[in-house]
Amino acid sequence: MPDSDQWPDEPDEPDPESRWGDPERDLVSVPEVDVPGEGENIAVDGDLAKFFWVTVIYANVAVAGVSVGAMLVAFRGQWIWGGVAVAVGLFALFRTYDLYGTYREQVAGDDPESDAEVAGDDPESDAEAADSDEHNG
Questions:
Q1: Which residues are within 8 A (CB) of 62 and not within 5 positions of it... i.e. 6 or more apart?
Q2: Is there a domain that residue 36 lies in?
Q3: Minimal CA–CA distance to 76: which of 63, 85, 88?
Q4: Domain assignment present for 9
Q5: How many angstroms from the chain centroid is the CA of residue 10?
Q6: Shortest CA distance to 116 belongs to which of 107, 108, 125, 129?
Q7: Which residues contact 89 (CB under 8 A, 6 or more apart)?
Q8: Running DSSP on this structure, what letter comes out for residue 45?
Q9: Residues 131, 137: Cα–Cα separation, whole Å
Q10: How many whole angstroms separate alpha carbon 54 and alpha carbon 65?
Q11: Residue 28, in any domain of the structure
Q12: Does residue 89 contact residue 62 with C-beta atoms inside 8 Å?
């Protein structure tokens, strides 16, 4: 194999990164933003943390169970295993919804029915208004 000193007319290998220059000097500097509370230890209520993490776990089980179960049925034809996985996923989805309702009632102190009344969303009065509109119009 010949040495490069033996071939003085041979061009140097091109440097593909030379066309970009010095990115640390050439790029635009991005300004920093001061976010209040960033990096500080924020105290979170223990009940809120418990409900959050349990709900996250149930939601993940729900998504995995329903999707894996549907794929087992669709791609492999395994109705029993797929059905069990979908059932577990739907149960976890129900528990997620139930935990959210429990959190709103017990910890947050919100009552979903009182929220509907405050917003003016009373289903009975809406039905009565619709009936009166039908009779009047």
A1: 89, 90, 92, 93, 96
A2: no
A3: 85
A4: no
A5: 57
A6: 125
A7: 61, 62, 63, 64, 65, 66, 67, 68, 69
A8: -
A9: 10
A10: 16
A11: no
A12: yes
Residue whose token pair is 């149930």: 58
| Within-domain flag for 131 | no
Q: What does DSSP assign to residue 25?
A: H
Residue pLDDT, tens place only, 7-44: 777 777 877 777 777 777 777 777 777 777 766 777 87
55-105 pLDDT per residue, tens: 999 999 999 999 999 999 999 999 999 999 999 999 999 999 999 999 888
**Where do we find the tokens 């290998």?**
13
Across 45-61, b (16+ Cβ under 10 Å) vs e yields: eeeeeebeeebeebbeb
Q: How far apart are CA 16 and CA 33, in angstroms?
A: 35
Per-position b or e across 93-123, b if 16+ CB within 10 A of its CB: bebbeebbeebeeeeeeeeeeeeeeeeeeee
**3-class secondary-structure state, position 110:** coil
72 and 81 Cβ atoms separated by less than 8 Å: yes
Q: What is the pLDDT of residue 57?
A: 96
75, two tokens: 């791609």
pTM to 2 decimal places? 0.53
Q: Would you say 31 and 68 are in contact if contact means Cβ atoms under 8 Å apart?
A: no
Which residue range(s) make up the domain with 85? 45-109
Name the domain count of the chain: 1
